[in-house]
From TrEMBL:
Residue ranges annotated for the Major facilitator superfamily (MFS) profile domain, each copy included: 1-397
Transmembrane stretches, start-end: 20-43, 55-75, 150-169, 181-199, 226-250, 262-281, 301-320, 365-392
Annotated membrane topology: Multi-pass membrane protein
Lineage of origin: Bacteria, Bacillati, Actinomycetota, Actinomycetes, Streptosporangiales
A Pfam family reported for this protein in Swiss-Prot or TrEMBL: MFS_1
Natural source organism: Nonomuraea roseoviolacea subsp. carminata
Matches recorded under Gene3D superfamilies: MFS general substrate transporter like domains
SUPFAM superfamilies hit by this protein: MFS general substrate transporter
Protein name: MFS family permease
Entries under PANTHER family matching the protein: TRANSPORTER, PUTATIVE (AFU_ORTHOLOGUE AFUA_3G04000)-RELATED
Keyword Transmembrane helix: yes
Keywords: Membrane, Transmembrane, Transmembrane helix
Compartment(s) of residence: Cell membrane
Length: 408
């Protein structure tokens, strides 16, 4: 009963806009969890080579970069609700294109405009605007808890999406990938309906600069430094995104689509549960330690996966790595909101998302290039990703261990 009352009180504190944002991201991430497991299979069925898969994933991330950059600079002026609705519509168009078309140029165009994601990570135009709305509408002392809810529900939905991919692989009527992208389009329509219900309180308050008609946009120095560091982290993680891992497990160990769906169901569910510890860890050790300690351990486990002799041992290492790999996310989002002034939060959230998307747009192509010949056995992208991730942990700690926070 006390836990139920606490949950009810938290939902009330989250507010209507917060609940709509959390629900929209959960639906979106369910779609990513389902399609990312089957995306490489869809392209292979269409006769595309591995390098074409890498190019499509890179172009999808590049499209997210362009959209995130535009929204980061102008969403507050154009209207947050309006821009989120527009992005949801483009996501629906992309889902229809992937479900119905086998033309590689059409798929490239759809991937560029439609936030197709190779994993359940949400480095998309939505995230920067959504995080700004959450930071604006919630008590700063509750930011880590709010962002934990935002991420945990999304990760649980992503896990269910991977499980749905396994179920779609068993039905006999249409290919699993086509069914997954038809579902993706339907989920996009549902997110549009949720964004439509956002209230005016979700919009940015007018700043003096906007009231006076001056529209020059400046990205503050702290935001640029954070963006550079987060880009390094995203590039390292992008070398081992879900689509790449699914393809590597199939090539190295002969894993089937049904097996991969179950593996990535667990690989998304475990970090969702583990992320519930983020507020406790942040309150005891601080935001920076909550970001870096589990992240470092996850990178060490990632480096061990290529040395696993069997599918079972590799899956065990992967699940341990995944359990720790996302604990840092709500602390990182709260850290970003705390390290910059409130007026710069939309810019900070979007620009760091842009930086991560830029890095992720390059890493799938690099990963598929490295998965050739003997490098498939060595798992080179996983080893390089782990090394870069450890470098990020060390650099961020040295740069911000004494930084003051704007919020509690």
């Amino acid at each position: 009963m006390p836990n139920t009352q606490a949950a009810s009180r938290f939902l009330v504190e989250l507010g209507r806009n917060g609940r709509l944002i959390v629900a929209a991201r959960a639906l979106r991430t369910f779609g990513y969890g389902c399609t990312s497991v089957l995306l490489a299979e869809l392209l292979a069925q269409d006769g595309d080579d591995p390098w074409q898969t890498g190019l499509l994933l890179s172009l999808a991330s590049a499209g997210s970069v362009v959209a995130s950059l535009t929204l980061g600079l102008f969403a507050d002026r154009w209207g947050r609700r309006r821009t989120l609705i527009a992005c949801g519509c483009l996501m629906a168009v992309a889902g229809v294109a992937f479900a119905l078309s086998e033309s590689y140029p059409i798929l490239l165009a759809a991937a560029f405009i439609g936030t197709i994601s190779p994993s359940t990570n949400d480095n998309t135009p939505f995230s920067g605007v959504e995080q700004s709305i959450l930071a604006q509408t919630c008590d700063p002392r509750r930011h880590t808890t709010v962002f934990t809810c935002y991420n945990v529900t999304a990760m649980a939905a992503g896990a269910l999406g991977a499980l749905a991919a396994a179920a779609l692989a068993l039905q006999p009527w249409v290919t699993a990938a086509d069914a997954a992208f038809a579902l993706y389009a339907l989920l996009a329509v549902c997110t549009v309906l949720l964004f439509w219900r956002l209230s005016p309180e979700a919009e940015a308050p007018p700043s003096p600069r906007h009231r006076q008609g001056r529209h020059r946009v400046r990205v503050p120095g702290p935001v640029r430094r954070l963006a550079a560091l987060f880009a390094l982290d995203a590039f390292s993680g992008g070398l081992a995104v879900q689509s790449i891992l699914a393809w590597w497990f199939a090539q190295r160990y002969g894993a089937t689509s049904a097996q991969l769906g179950l593996v990535f169901f667990a690989a998304n569910l475990l970090p969702a549960l583990a992320q519930l510890t983020a507020p406790f860890l942040a309150s005891r050790r601080g935001l920076l330690a909550a970001m870096l300690l589990p992240h470092l351990a996850a990178n060490l486990l990632l480096a061990a996966i290529p040395f696993a002799p069997t599918l079972a041992s590799a899956v065990t290492l992967l699940l341990l790595r995944q359990t720790l790999s996302k604990i840092d996310v709500p602390a990182r989002q709260a850290f970003t909101a705390a390290i910059v002034p409130p007026a710069h939060r939309t810019t900070a959230a979007s620009m760091t998302s842009v930086a991560r998307s830029v890095a992720v747009s390059v890493s799938p192509l690099a990963a598929t290039t490295l998965f050739t010949g003997a490098l498939v056995i060595l798992g080179a992208p996983l080893l390089i990703g782990a090394a870069l991730g450890i470098g990020y942990d060390i650099t961020l700690w040295r740069a911000y261990r004494t930084a003051p926070m704007a919020d509690g």
